[in-house]
Amino acid sequence: MSTKETSVFLTDRFLLRRNDKNSFYLFLCNFPQTLKMALLPWRRGKVIRIKNETATTKRYWIEVPELSSFDFIPGQFVTLDLPIHEKANKRLRSYSIASWPDGTNVFELVIVLDKKGAGTHYMFDEVSAGTELSFRGAQGIFVLKEPLDKDLFLICTGTGIAPFRSMVHHIHNKKIPHKNITLIFGCRTKDTILYYEEMKKLDESTESFTYIPVLSRESWEGRTGYVHQVYEELCKDKKPAEFMLCGWRGMIDQAKQKILDMGYDAKDIHIEIYG
Ligand SMILES: Cc1cc2nc3c(=O)[nH]c(=O)nc-3n(C[C@H](O)[C@H](O)[C@H](O)COP(=O)(O)OP(=O)(O)OC[C@H]3O[C@@H](n4cnc5c(N)ncnc54)[C@H](O)[C@@H]3O)c2cc1C
Questions:
Q1: Cis previous bond, 41, omega within 30
Q2: Is the preceding omega at residue 138 within 30 degrees of 0, hence cis?
Q3: Using the 8-state DSSP alphabet, how is residue 114 labeled?
Q4: pLDDT digits (tens, 9 = 90+) for 147-187
Q5: pLDDT digits over 104-154, tens only?
Q6: Which atom of ligand 1 is nearest to 115's Cα?
Q7: Is ligand 1 within 6 A of the CB of residue 142?
Q8: Which amino acid residue places its CA nearest to atom 15 of ligand 1?
Q9: Could you tell me if the CB of 120 is within 6 A of ligand 1?
Q10: N or C: which end of the chain has fewer CB atoms below 10 A?
């Protein structure tokens, strides 16, 4: 869907969730997507591996035994139906797919524990290798818009890196033509950086890919501060660029406003808000 309003996305939990006016108009624009989502079947997924990525973040590998290949577009998410409430609409939690389409029936999620959250407590305390989960998807419209004919800035904090990890590997694997891609990842301390070695390696081996982790609460050999200072610096000459923002509302609202203030058009900004 192409619209000047960029803050649109669809999940099971929030049928249409955005932060501007004209939502009914956008609902109509999205109607085919909404309908398609409603028609997606619920599937069984089996957790086959879990790894602690940081003290508060875990990676989950989920196999879909009923499919030989689990197909999705990098940037899409799945919705889990977790047994945490008797009401169906209170059980649903969406998670971006952190892996890339590789022709197998396994996908990866990366989930941060919300100390007061019901869903993540279930995922951290009750789920282990062998647990079966009910899920729907893949779904969502936060995906790459080809051709990738402008520099691309992928801006995220914490597990907001999930869709970007999927996208950058996919672009690399499929040799999709692109301009420069810069992944700006923000978190507080070095021990909370996600996929650090992997992203560093991709940066070192790929000329067109730059990875910039930024720490807000710790001095280290890399950048400190917030993600905003990085793209403001890199785009001060207002070169043609597209911006994809993913994570929690505070960072996204701020980034969107700053990018608009720099003179970019709303249509160059694409966002996925986690909550
Ligand atoms: C498209 C999409 C993709 C996402 N992808 C990811 C991802 O890849 N990784 C990831 O980690 N997260 C992701 N999320 C966020 C995820 O869906 C959940 O929102 C998140 O994991 C928290 O779920 P929870 O059940 O633990 O918290 P919830 O139970 O939903 O609670 C969330 C917060 O609400 C507050 N709260 C809840 N109930 C109450 C109450 N009764 N009174 C007062 N406050 C309350 C709590 O303070 C809590 O911190 C994504 C979200 C979306 C929409």
A1: no
A2: yes
A3: -
A4: 999 999 999 999 999 999 999 999 999 999 999 999 999 99
A5: 999 999 999 999 999 999 999 999 999 999 999 999 999 999 999 999 999
A6: 49
A7: no
A8: 274
A9: yes
A10: N
Q: Which residue has the tokens 């875990």?
A: 58
CB of 99 closer than 6 angstroms to any ligand 1 atom: no
> 48 CB contacts (<8 Å, ≥6 apart)?
61, 62, 63, 106, 129, 130
Tell me how far the alpha carbon of residue 119 lies from the centroid of ligand 1, in angstroms.
7
To the question of pTM greater than 0.85 for the whole model, the response is yes
Domains of the chain, residue spans: 40-139, 142-273
**Topology of domain 40-139, CATH:** Elongation Factor Tu (Ef-tu); domain 3 (2.40.30)
Alpha-helix residue ranges (DSSP H) falling in the chain? 23-29, 31-39, 118-125, 162-174, 196-205, 227-234, 249-261
Closest CA to 181 of 193, 194, 172, 189: 172
Question: CA of 267: how far to CAs of 16, 19, 249, in Å?
Answer: 19, 15, 19
Tally of CB atoms within 10 A around 272? 26
Q: Residue 110 corresponds to which tokens in the numbers above? A: 């990366």
Measured from the CB, is residue 275 less than 6 Å from ligand 1? yes
| Alpha carbon 159 to its chain's center | 7
Is the C-beta atom of 116 inside 6 A of ligand 1? yes
Joined tokens for residue 70 = 């689990």
Radius of gyration of the chain (CA): 18
Q: Output the residue whose Cα is nearest ligand 1's atom 49.
A: 116
State whether the beta carbon of 119 lies less than 6 angstroms from ligand 1: yes
Domain 142-273 in CATH 1.10.10.10 = no
Cis peptide before 177 (omega within 30 of 0): no
- 57 bridge partner residues: 54, 112
118 CA → ligand 1 middle, Å: 8
Q: How far apart are CA 159 and CA 132, in angstroms?
A: 23
